[in-house]
């Protein structure tokens, strides 16, 4: 449900959209700014440039450049001084709106919500980001369909943490929270989110592989979500989502997954990376094609949707052909249907990842960014043709654009 506030401010028309999840202020036709209901800045759009802020106070600027092959989406993180100037300029503009009596009279909530936005100075946002860091450590990645989930960390870190291309969880020791720890974590998360909780549309059970924990403990922790009144809206509307690896996923039965489905599990994301087992061996990724087949069949039999993530460009030119062909043949074997997604992630190795020296050792020829972009289009076509008619989608995405 949405209510609109409109009023004339000089030669401009100001429009404030009161949505159930957030507040959007149209300062001009080409300048929009959004806040959560706590008053935290979410992002803005101004004449073709989009700036988004994460809870860690990273401001990410995105824009499109023209090129021979069409517009290309570019991005960079703002420096602290740039982010401060941007935020404070918006605060000044919104502050001037608060001085207009028409704004206060136009809608009962307008003045209150705009005041919350003005109260969140850059320094206060930076302080909030420190609280976020103490609460979560960091959230390295989510599936793109879950960027607006409320992350509740049943576990910290990754159960394996040895894939040579991945450094996301190297600073975390894997830990399973006790029921008491999980309840306290949820309490702190809800305190931190405050009114901004309304922006979170589902629940993501973190970290990297929460479903790998014992079935009894997993049921215990998921039931705590159901005992928490503030989480019921997200449970009902978005449900529970999680990552799962392809080798420990085989340890749970269809009946286990069916019970999790009854408790709200909607979709599980599997970092398959490739259908080529030789490439998986090279990057020290555990699991096999058979594991993927078995896990996906079990999840689908239980009524749980799946995400399959392939990493385009992994293995460079040396593995290129087999990487695509074997991944497509694997996808063809899976019982995918409407609600399932294949994400194509462009490979961009962290300079600290063990992958790079290992690749250099065997003389692997890496792909350039342009080559990976071209390869991404080929994957999209081949995978799209492979699963045509199933109702599942093939969606490219950029890991580098993730902010939470």
Number of domains: 2
CATH class of the largest domain: Alpha Beta
- Widest sheet: strand order? 1-2-3-4-5-6-7-8
Write down the overall mean pLDDT. 93
Major pleated sheet? 8 strands, antiparallel
Shape: globular
What is the ordering of alpha helices and beta strands? EEEEEEEEHHHHEEEHEHHEHEHHEHEHHE
Q: What's the helical proportion of residues?
A: 25-40%
**What is the chains' assembly state?**
single chain
Q: Radius of gyration, Cα only, in angstroms?
A: 23 Å
Strand content: 15-25%
Q: What structural category arises from helix and sheet content? A: alpha/beta
Ends apart, CA distance between termini: 25 Å
Individual helix count: 13
Q: What is the H level of CATH, i.e. the homologous superfamily of the largest domain?
A: Aldolase class I
User: Which ranges are low-confidence, i.e. pLDDT below 50, for 5 or more consecutive residues?
Assistant: none
């Amino acid at each position: 449900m949405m209510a609109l506030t409109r009023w004339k401010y000089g030669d401009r028309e100001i429009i404030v959209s009161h949505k159930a999840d957030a507040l959007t202020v149209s300062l001009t036709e080409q300048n929009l700014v959004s806040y959560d209901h706590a008053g935290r800045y979410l992002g803005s759009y101004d004449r073709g440039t989009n700036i988004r802020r994460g809870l860690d106070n990273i401001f990410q600027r995105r824009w499109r450049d023209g090129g021979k092959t069409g517009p290309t989406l570019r991005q960079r993180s703002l420096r602290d001084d740039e982010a401060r100037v941007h935020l404070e300029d918006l605060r000044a503009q919104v502050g001037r709106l608060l001085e207009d009596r028409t704004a206060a009279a136009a809608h009962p909530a307008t003045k209150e919500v705009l005041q919350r936005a003005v109260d969140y100075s850059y320094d206060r946002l930076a302080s909030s980001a420190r609280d976020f860091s103490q609460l979560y450590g960091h959230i390295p990645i989510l599936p793109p369909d879950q960027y607006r989930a409320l992350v509740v960390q049943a576990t910290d870190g990754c159960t394996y943490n040895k894939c040579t291309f991945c450094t996301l969880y190297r600073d975390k020791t894997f830990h399973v929270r006790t029921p008491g720890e999980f309840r306290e974590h949820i309490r702190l998360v809800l305190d931190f989110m405050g009114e901004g909780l309304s922006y979170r549309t589902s629940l993501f059970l973190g970290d990297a592989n929460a479903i790998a924990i014992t079935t009894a403990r997993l049921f215990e922790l998921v039931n705590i979500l159901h005992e928490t009144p503030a989480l019921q809206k997200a449970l009902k509307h978005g449900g529970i989502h999680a990552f799962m690896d392809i080798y420990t996923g085989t340890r749970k039965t269809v009946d286990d997954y069916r019970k999790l489905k009854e408790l709200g599990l909607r979709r599980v994301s599997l970092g398959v990376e490739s259908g080529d087992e030789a490439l998986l061996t090279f990057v020290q990724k555990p699991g096999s094609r058979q594991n993927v087949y078995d896990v996906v069949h079990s999840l689908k039999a239980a009524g749980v949707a799946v995400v399959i993530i392939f990493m385009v460009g992994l293995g460079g030119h040396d593995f290129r052909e087999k990487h695509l062909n074997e991944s497509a043949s694997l996808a063809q074997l899976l019982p995918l249907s409407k609600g399932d997604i294949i994400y194509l992630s462009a490979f961009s190795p962290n300079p600290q990842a063990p992958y790079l020296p290992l690749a250099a050792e065997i003389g692997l020829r890496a792909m350039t960014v342009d080559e990976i972009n071209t390869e991404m289009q080929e994957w999209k076509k081949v995978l799209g043709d492979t699963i045509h008619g199933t109702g599942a989608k093939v969606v490219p995405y950029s890991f580098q654009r993730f902010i939470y």
